[in-house]
Amino acid sequence: MVSFADNSRSFYTVDMPPISPEQALQYAPDDSSVKAAKKLATINQWQSLYGYSPVDQGQALIWGEINGSSLYQSSIIFAQQLSFACNCPSFKNPCKHSIALLLCYAHSQHAFVSGAEIPAWVNKHVSKVQAADAKKAEKAAQPAKVVDETAQAKRVAAREKKVEAGLSELALWLDDLLRMGLAQAKNLPYSHFRRAQERLIDAQAPALATLIGNLQSALAHADWQQQAALHVGKIQLLLSAYQRLETLPAALQADVRTMIGWNTPQEQVLATPASQDHWLIVGSRELEGENNIKYRRQWLWGMHSQQTALTLTFAAGFQTLSPALPLALCFAGALCWYPSAWPQRALIKEQGAVQQQAMTQLGFDSIEQALQQQAQALAVNPFLTLMPWLFNSVMPQ
Predict the structure, then answer these.
(1) DSSP 3-state helix, strand, coil percentages of the chain (rounded to 5)?
(2) Is 70 exceeded by the pLDDT of residue 59?
């Protein structure tokens, strides 16, 4: 819980948490906020800039005042998620003043004076965060709701029945497509594939509906023969696996169900044993899905375990993605894994400070070694489509 109630002028020499300008701008809700914040992100435009980092806590606080049409007061609490406050009339959160304050901090951390008395308007922000944290803690401490296992089993059985019906229709649809031939399928209208997708969505198999969309896109490629055949084979393999699901190992069953569209609740994942390591942030990519969903893939590499981990972050509608972890930095933490025959996707259960760390020999020694691991992975989970490769010695050409 955040606690900055001490208004003394004691001087603290504790390092404030680092943040890069790129990270700071990722908090901006839109492009116009980025442009406006950059204009205000110079030290000489601010009346005052202060920082506070208590000795006994891993959280910190910065605040400042800037003249606009009025005197605007902004503060930021560095917790697991940054919390912004400003007295300007903007409906955006964070507003341009808050982003500018964070950008100032990213560029010139030394300009934030420590040891100052925390003003009442900043303490108001702190108290609000404290109250929210206390409410969350109280909610977390409450006993878990008793699950009606009978009702839950009925819901699962009803969905299983829907999925089975949808997959039976998909099998017939796929047979008709192959009987027709991929060359003829290439000329089919969008509506032909869309109807199949909608039927799978109704059958509560949304991930399979995505595969149908991928098949249609493959038919439009220059090398459509190879691409479409690959997607048809993947769909047929998934149908065959689901038909004999009970005979597969439990971990592979989880992979098949995920490929159909079943989700594993986060609380269930976080209840599994965690892997402790120092995790190097090696890759990041932002993408857009259907229904105005944005998401980010970030790859982590365990510096001791040499294990890869994929974290996913989602945002819907006008929401912004939370800032990405900075590449090539490292954090000590614990990860919990989604069930899989070759676990890759993970949730961060515990995360220490992100910092630079001396690089040890990481990754593969050769492409052959990487291919051997890929073969091992595909042998236990043939549905894998993404695998990161990290080499410890590469000369770009």
Answers:
(1) 45, 20, 35
(2) no
